[in-house]
Amino acid sequence: MFLIFGANLSEKVINVVSFVCAFCGADARQDMIKSSTRFTLFFIPLFLLGTRYLNQCTNCGAETALTAAQARHSLEWSGSH
Ligand SMILES: [Zn+2]
């Protein structure tokens, strides 16, 4: 008997904001990405290994890590404006 296991990474854009990028200095769209890693067994995702949030500049591609609290705050802020 053998097992096939691994990790499945999925990323999705959960919010889009616009501000001056700290890396390229352009006032560009920033995608907020939720990145989840799941443990898989026989290619079936079983449970979540970890979630991280990051901000990606659409102009230069620079990524900045966000905490879950920062991500939640960003969603609340854009929901109220
Ligand atoms: Zn940039």
Alpha-beta classification: mainly beta
pLDDT average, as an integer?
93
How many DSSP E strands? 4
**Residue runs with pLDDT of under 50 for 5 or more positions:** none
Series of H and E elements: EEEEH
Strand arrangement within the widest β-sheet reads 1-2-3-4
- How is the main sheet built? 4 strands, antiparallel
Helix count, per DSSP?
Answer: 1
Our Rg estimate from Cα atoms comes to 16 Å
Task: State which percent range the strand residues make up.
Answer: over 45%
| Portion of residues within helices | 10-25%
Distance between the termini: 56 Å
C-alpha geometry = elongated
Ligands: zinc ion
Structural description of this entry:
The protein is mostly beta strands and 81 residues long. The chain contains 1 helix and 4 strands; from the N terminus they run ββββα. The chain has a 4-stranded antiparallel beta sheet with strand order 1-2-3-4, with helices on one face. It is elongated, with a radius of gyration of 16 Å. Zinc ion binds next to loops.
Summarize the structure.
By secondary structure, the protein is mainly β. The protein is built from one helix and four strands, in the order ββββα. The protein starts with a strand and ends with a helix.
List keywords for this structure.
81 residues; mainly beta; 4-stranded antiparallel β-sheet; 1 helix; 60% strand; binds zinc ion
